[in-house]
């Protein structure tokens, strides 16, 4: 099968003719192509063509939106793009990359994964600062994102000004672009709905002034030590603060990194029973575990030891294989992955209680909460969370986030997240088997299944990826609860509201 632009035209033709059989035939042909023997640019076209075909097929299939297939093919395409040197990317290629990034960001936003979507909207604008569609979709994403934020109200005001700025710049650029009039009308309606009238009545220069005024700088460096400053700068640059704005502050010149700290918490909660303290306590524990893992990761990455750690001296650990690494540093690295992974089942435990799934505690896991529940031998009831209810962006985001860590369907299909394809296996080995961290994994070294070998660099990459996914999961969980609490306030107007208390850090000593 020839992988070229004519292929994309054939897909468009089958879509216009509503030929479902033709689309399925194209998918079958494309999935049988040996991608390894293709040049990089043709690989990008192959994966993009597969995504387009699944996207069109979803329009005629009410049972499946094929999000997993589409996300997987986007990621394969992006992996190839990121392997290209910038010198290999010409103007046409740059346009194609922006188009792929935009479609990927939009599908992430539709899945409720605003944090990850924001990252790709920003990448597009770094490649093409005059990309009208990216500015408009980014603005819509930000407006929806503010609905579930639990941050200082002035921060939300700043985001609204920033979204309005994106809208106004895009509308001005659209006058000189080829964007369709119908699309502009659609975004104009969104602008009028999402942006307050008092902001819409302002001119662009006034909005830019208000944006600067709305940004509050926080004195979060408590003891002004250089070590703390370096640590927080690393956290901010890697988007690891438990703060929904971290992605925005890190890559957007209008914002300051000083906005970032760990402020993620539930809003006021309707008191339906005596479990309110339980919800806060288990969420606090999950946050603290994440914060601990984050610090361990920082220490692993930044420690440059000339001599062994004093805790490793005189331990009489001996190995004839100089490729294997034993040290406290390696144990820290193992713990980052192991602990971050374990928080997911605590999230599932929380959801089971809070959303009243009534699953037996021993059956609760991040996989099981999304699955049908078998009550009797031949009786199956759908989990109320199956595939994430569409009216709760937080739960939708959490479902798709968990798909990156675990294969929910237990089938042999391609993993949604390419970096964590064997996360379950890695965790099981770390927890229950012998794991050797090595400088380099030798060919066929894992075939005998007695010892699991993994390179230090690979485990670092997986642990960092796991940390970032856990951060997103906690933000999604917080959003899901906040959206649910908004409903409960309407349904239980006579119940007491329990507000959040703010504590200083000194009580932790």
From TrEMBL:
It comes from the Bacteria. InterPro entries: HEPN_LA2681 (IPR040826), TPR-like_helical_dom_sf (IPR011990). Residues 276-484 form the LA2681-like HEPN domain. This is LA2681-like HEPN domain-containing protein. It comes from Acetobacterium paludosum.
């Amino acid at each position: 099968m020839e992988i070229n632009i004519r292929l994309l035209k054939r897909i468009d033709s089958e879509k216009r003719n509503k030929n479902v059989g033709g689309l399925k035939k194209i998918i079958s042909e494309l999935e049988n192509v040996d991608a390894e023997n293709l040049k990089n640019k043709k690989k990008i076209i192959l994966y993009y063509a597969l995504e387009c075909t699944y996207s069109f097929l979803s329009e005629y299939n009410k049972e499946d939106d094929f999000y997993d297939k589409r996300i997987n093919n986007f990621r394969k395409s992006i992996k190839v793009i990121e392997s290209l040197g910038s010198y290999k990317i010409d103007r046409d290629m740059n346009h194609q990359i922006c188009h792929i990034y935009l479609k990927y960001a939009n599908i992430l936003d539709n899945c409720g994964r605003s944090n990850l979507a924001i990252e790709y909207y920003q990448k597009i604008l770094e490649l093409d600062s005059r990309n009208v569609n990216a500015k408009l979709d980014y603005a819509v994403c930000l407006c929806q994102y503010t609905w579930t934020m639990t941050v200082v109200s002035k921060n939300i005001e700043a985001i609204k000004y920033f979204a309005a700025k994106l809208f106004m710049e895009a509308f001005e650029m659209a006058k000189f672009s080829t964007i369709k009039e119908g699309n502009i009308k659609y975004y104009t309606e969104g602008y009028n709905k999402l942006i307050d009238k008092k902001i819409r009545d302002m001119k662009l220069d006034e909005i830019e002034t208000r944006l600067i005024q709305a940004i509050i700088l926080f004195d979060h460096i408590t003891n002004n030590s250089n070590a703390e400053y370096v640590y927080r700068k690393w956290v901010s640059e890697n988007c690891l603060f438990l703060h929904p704005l971290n992605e925005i502050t890190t890559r957007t010149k209008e914002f300051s990194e000083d906005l970032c700290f760990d402020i993620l918490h539930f809003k006021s909660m309707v008191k339906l029973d005596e479990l309110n303290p339980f919800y806060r306590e288990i969420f606090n524990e999950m946050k603290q575990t994440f914060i601990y893992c984050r610090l361990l990761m920082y220490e692993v990455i930044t420690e440059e030891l000339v001599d062994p750690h004093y805790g490793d001296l005189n331990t009489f650990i001996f190995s004839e294989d100089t490729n294997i690494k034993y040290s406290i540093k390696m144990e820290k690295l193992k713990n980052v992955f192991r602990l971050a992974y374990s928080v997911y089942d605590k999230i599932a435990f929380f959801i089971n209680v809070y959303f009243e799934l009534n699953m037996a505690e021993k059956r609760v896991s991040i996989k099981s909460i999304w699955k049908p529940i078998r009550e009797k031998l031949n009786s199956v009831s759908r989990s109320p969370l199956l595939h994430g209810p569409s009216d709760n962006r937080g739960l939708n985001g959490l479902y798709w986030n968990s798909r990156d860590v675990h294969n929910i369907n237990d089938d042999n299909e391609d993993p949604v997240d390419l970096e964590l394809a064997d996360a379950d296996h890695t965790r099981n080995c770390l927890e229950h088997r012998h794991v050797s961290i090595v400088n380099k994994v030798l060919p066929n070294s894992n075939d005998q299944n007695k010892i699991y070998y993994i390179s230090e660099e690979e485990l670092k990459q997986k642990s960092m990826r796991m940390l970032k996914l856990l951060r997103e999961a906690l933000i999604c969980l917080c959003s899901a609860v906040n959206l649910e609490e908004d409903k409960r306030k309407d349904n239980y107007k006579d119940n007491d509201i329990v507000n959040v208390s703010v504590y200083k850090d000194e009580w932790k000593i």
